[in-house]
Amino acid sequence: MSWLIEVDGQTCIGSGICAGTAPDDFELVDGVSHAKRTEVEQSEVVVDAAESCPVEAILVKDADNGEIVAPEA
């Protein structure tokens, strides 16, 4: 099972917490976070990165059913 990662570039403030938490999955480009891949294997570090975002710019969803995995509501 895999997850989809979306980063809202309009909301992102470029704190870099996501890239520091999950460097295999996120990078900063011109001061804005980007997912290195839109679809990833399930990983606790991806959830940690989404949960750590100070402006909740990262959305992680189940690729099969679209259910939101993180951040928690």
From TrEMBL:
Gene3D superfamilies in alphabetical order: 3.30.70.20
Keywords: 3Fe-4S, Electron transport, Iron, Iron-sulfur, Metal-binding, Transport
Pfam families named in the record: Fer4_13
Cofactors that this protein relies on: [3Fe-4S] cluster
Keyword Iron-sulfur attached: yes
GO molecular function: 3 iron, 4 sulfur cluster binding; electron transfer activity; iron ion binding
InterPro entries (alphabetical): 3Fe4S_ferredoxin, Fe-S_cluster_ET
Keyword Electron transport found: yes
Biological role stated in the UniProt entry: Ferredoxins are iron-sulfur proteins that transfer electrons in a wide variety of metabolic reactions.
PANTHER family recorded: FERREDOXIN (PTHR36923)
Name assigned to this protein: Ferredoxin
